[in-house]
Polysaccharide deacetylase
Amino acid sequence: MLKRALKMAAGALYLRSGSGKQALADRAVILMLHRVVESDEAASLPHRNELCVGQHSFDRLLGWLKRHFDICELEPLLTTPSSSDRPRLALTFDDGWHDNATLAFPILQRHQVPASIFLSTDFIGTRQGFWWESIGETLWGSFGLAAIDSLLPRLAASGKPVPELLRSMPQNADRSRLVMRYLASLKDLPAPTLQALADSCPLSDPPQAMSWAQVTELEQSGLIRFGAHGASHALLDCLSPSQLQQDISRSLAAIASHCEQPLPIYCYPNGNYSASVTACIQQHALPFALSTRAGIYSAQSSMPYGLPRIGISQAVAAAPALLGWRIQQAGRPHH
Ligand SMILES: [Zn+2]
């Protein structure tokens, strides 16, 4: 705890100090978020912490960010020099969660803060679930014991048996940590296997992904713009050349047909990319792509097809001074 308190103090000082402001003068911070959920407490569980932020923490985070940064739209932040004496920051959301429209958007609107949302387009307007959410929440117990018992043999058959003790564990932080570690162990399974496992889980209500009507409504507000985050959310560097072409083309075509002003910026699912992935993005005449690598954006030194971001977990959203510390670390010259 002492370590955390010191990080928070250092982070707050950094953003207030001349050195912090100067270090960030010709640079910018791109934040990466996923879900905004109703309860801060639910978001803070280990298996959700990295990808979920509670709505109250999100509200407070925006207030804190507005005091320290100029919150800008992503595209102008990448294409035009800063005219402000405050560091610039842009918000990005990955995947296209239903809660981005129902919970995050009203808070963004209240603060009049713009954001970019990157959609995994096959999921938009469908009941299909993202594998880590469907499998993770089923194992956590969100759908009851019968759902767990029907999923366990399928997971064992895919070569990834779930540790025996999970079934009898109470819904506490230990169980949540076990779910988190187990989900991480699934990442190397083929995308179709993971999707089939997710499809065998109970459907959530409301659906995980937003609808195209919600996409239209958010874009028409003038506050939100959309880009592509893969079509199937498959790890792009693991696809064959023809699968890669198809996934990227399909995602861009869906965005182009549903959005007035698609972002000329790609967002790699899970941050995975390779030389052939960036070549494919370039062929589609997109000048930028976002990675998940932690870092601060610099027009001079950032690679346009591997732009760094800073991930926002519930732990960071609940204590935004920690973000100051993370920005200071990521902004150091050796990074
Ligand atoms: Zn994603």
In short: The chain has two domains: 25-52+64-124+208-302, 131-199. DSSP finds 16 helices and eleven strands in the chain.
